[in-house]
Amino acid sequence: MSNIINTREGRFSRMKLIIIVIEDDDTPALIRKLTEQGYRSTKLASTGGFLLQGNTTLLVGVEDEHVDPVLDIIRQTCVRRKKLLPHVASEIPTAINLPVEVEVGGAIVFVVDVQQFHEM
Questions:
Q1: Which has the closest alpha carbon to 22: 50, 39, 46?
Q2: Residue 39 falls within a domain, yes or no?
């Protein structure tokens, strides 16, 4: 019973922490859509992936029954797409720089149980 939280409304609910890693370009739209639906988030700057491009990690704490609606918002907002990136052939310094098509977007999502939650 350690992860059952007494909410402001006086009822008990299981809490989850949703950790969302997305491309920087998708961040404003996702935060806007989450906020419109009443979900608050904490934004953390991060870097990763094979392209070493800027990412954003969002932390969203919700009651158990809100996990699926949040996942739906993420699926609708952070879609995978093709993007052309400049490519430099480092092994041949005089080579022509040709763009490389890569797939970007989407999201990596972790949903974890919250043992304790405090609003202070």
A1: 46
A2: yes
The verdict on residue 93 lying in a domain is: no
Phi and psi dihedrals of 79, rounded to 5? -90, 150
Q: Which of 40, 71, 45, 68 is nearest to 56 (CA)?
A: 45
Say which residues have a Cβ less than 8 Å from residue 119's Cβ, sequence separation at least 6: none
Burial of 71 per CB tally in 10 Å (0-12, 13-18, 19+): middle
| pLDDT confidence band for 74 (50 / 70 / 90) | very high
- Helix, strand, or coil (residue 74): helix
Domains contained in the chain, number:
1
CATH number (domain holding residue 54): 3.30.70.120
